[in-house]
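Protein chain data
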Amino acid sequence: MKTKFVGAFSQSITLIGALLVSSNVIAEPAPASPSVEPPAGYKWEMVEALTDNFNGNTLDSNKWYDYHPVWSGRYPSRFKKGNAFVQDGVLFLRSTSQIDTPLADPESRVWVDAAAVVSKEKLAEPGWYYETSMKASDTAMSSSFWFRIGKYSEIDVIEHIGRATKGNVDATKSFLYEANTHVYGEQSGASIPESYKMATRGRDEFHRYGLWWKDANNLWFYHNGVKVFEIQPSVAFKEKLHMIFDTETLASQWVGYPTIESLKDDSRNAMKVDWVKTWKLVPGEPEPPVSAEHSIPGKIEAEQFSNQSGIQVEPTLDSGGGDNIGYIENGDVAEYKVNVAQAGKYKLSFRVASATNGGNLVIKTNSSTLASLPVPGTGAWQNWQTIEQEVTLAKGVQTMSLDFTGGSGYLFNLNWLSAELLESNTGTAYKTHVIPGLIQAEDYDNGGEGVGYSDSNTSNLGGQYRNDGVDIGDAADIGGGQFVGWVEAGEWLQYTISNITQGNYDVDLRLAAAGTSDKSVSLNIDGNALGNVNFKATDGWQNWQTQTLKNVYISGESNQQLRVHMETGALNLNWIEFVPVSNVSVDQCNNTQQCRNEFGSQATDCLNSQSATSICMCGTSQCL
């Protein structure tokens, strides 16, 4: 995320390093290698000319144009030099409006200034793997990562509309990872699209989009490191291409035009790119992984991370020798793959040193925050001290993340961390729960604090239903019953699920909160993250709304433990319901009749283009 000045032990140089970018969700660290296993006898090697962490505040002019050198953009937008820039370790591609009031005919003139960044060298070729971490703009502009400027071929790794304004298209389109291949010029062939429904919107958080251009006839596409679809182009793609990031007014007849308001709002109008990586295959054996899976209880050397962002490894003067991680700044992250032998309460110990005022260690598992531990100044970068924090861990394999926060400049060093079991989890189900099905929030597991739940106080502030520390009140919601409320950030509830039918589910949470501030709840099963539900407060403690975590996969093993973590406080939870995802998904139909043949006579209001092929975005009962 940022530039570092390296020295053996001297960390006196202060950098402009705090992550000041206005992003709702921090991007995950860049992988050390592709998710694709190399063929036997080969290993992956970085291609520096098409790799960039976008450190600092200046775009590397040796690698990139900050405009498109041969194309002015898609009407009624045009690329504007200066709308693409690097700020605080992130590449921004901003779309802005030239006008203050809507035009009677939006196609009558250019009125949107878009952005483009294009590689200076035409290097991309078959056999290489390309991946970027990006967050779409919150507008009806496309946020795109693609390859072109050859003689005939185009590969759109991702073309994503952040917020469509046409009808109800946004309800579906904002979750779609869409890719395409096109053929131009000296060759002829059909365009081939593919899509994948993501669990969260492209505008809500950073997503990783990857392409393995496996060979001239096979393109494999990846989302967050997982292969999601393939495309076989209609002609062999053999030529070298330029790498491109851009924003465009794309297919307005299907998605609508961006609003002037969204284009004038700098918190919404920029596509953001955290990094882009390119690897090629070279003869040799693959490098061993940075670290193996760590057992808990046990000790972990800090440099044995599975992933990281911003930190560096250096020799340590602490007892036992070896290395420590250092040059840690606000926003840096270290991740460790761990296997917890028993669920229960653990004492985590951290070996730290700091010549400044220190900072904070935010401890997470599978993106759920467990605790925030202050790290003190110790007087010197190699003057070591052990600090401790009690947390409750679920059983099983999971990712433990250490997020480092604090002021500007370097914060502290970390040599090792260890976990000691204090109390095993012997909780039992309070009621029988099954998936699919509905779980009442107040029916969390038996076992008390640190076993069936974690609550910041020992009494039931609502005084209803149970006598534990969880705060329960009467719900003025449909169906009545009780709710869990008076929550604080970091609290959690656990539910043992006796029977689970394997499959994909939409997870509905019935929530309420006073005011209009941002709220967040995360879920995991046996330590495997399902995702976060992020929502605006509902302007009332009993003003109930259903928020949905879309399309999550759950294995069919029995007696798994669901955990609901309160990432923010001041919210109420009534129930959680797991609803099987319908087998009917978004489809593309050639015309209205085909749409109705596929989805029934109620499929109406299809979106037809002026081209030879009409596109109909169909749902289960109607076009969107």
